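ping. complex inputs:
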Amino acid sequence: MNELINEVKQLIIETLELEDIEPADIADDEALFVDGLGLDSIDALELGVAIKKAYNVKIDGDSADSKKHFYSVTSLCQFIAENR
Amino acid sequence: MEFHIEKLSAWCGNLHTSQQWQQWALGEITYQDEDELPALKQIPAMQRRRLSRFAKLTMQCVLDVTTEASIDESNHIPCVFSSRHGDLHKTSKLIEDVAQKQDLSPTHFGLSVHNAVAGLYSIFSKNKQPMTATSAGEDTFLMALVDGYAKLESQKLDRILVVYTDEIVPEKYTPYVPDTEKTISVALILTRQKSHHNVTINFTSQQNKNIETEFQALSFLSFLYGKEQHINVNSTRYQWKLTKL
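pong. complex structure:
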């Protein structure tokens, strides 16, 4: 799981072109969107495409669960691990 | 039509300041290609990461004139953004992805539309005045001025921001455009009263397929900062006459 967590952090940084941010700067359990890292809805779409490409896991944008999966790096990794 | 230009900022190769533009127009310095991009440290990193070269050059010139003219949340102005090709480097990459049946980047797709930079500027500056994004082939630069003039006069505005940006097109498109095109951004504020630069511009229709088209933004800057009192600019569809007041 730790390996996946680091991979996903790296994926977030590269996909979303987060200059000046290191994987260590992203807390595993903190909110990725709005309050936490400050990502927005376009980032969510972009991340969805990148995760599908990297892990062949599709997150349904309309489902109520997608908000839960996208909440933090940990929740994202759990979802990937269960569905890849 | 009388144009009164209160502020102007242009970025092209090694030419960034009005002093440099003046020296260039007088033949004291020559144009050189330069890849350096404005740092735009005033824009938060989370917004800056979305700016392409096209967007960075535009934002630089826009923020330059709006800051100099003390435009803030109390006196935002309407805007005309213009570009012949738009952010073609971004668009052509998306088209390649479509051809190769790759998933498209939602971010790049969203930012490839013609009014993308107008939107980015609006988000950053909180300017919610009317903004348009126009294109008029080789006449884009001068027609954007005409568009700005029309809005200024018809709506009795105090001032309006007119912006023009184009980049040297991706290599596969070079056979289709004149080799006089450069990567350039120009932002200017037009007012209804006599101001810093004052120019009359008039145009008439013509049909001339064999004309060697000029790169209008550079012709205009060369005229504005140079010693000529009057120039003609010919395109395949129009003859433009520019005179200093």
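Residues 2-83 of chain A form a domain with the Non-ribosomal Peptide Synthetase Peptidyl Carrier Protein; Chain A fold (CATH 1.10.1200.10).
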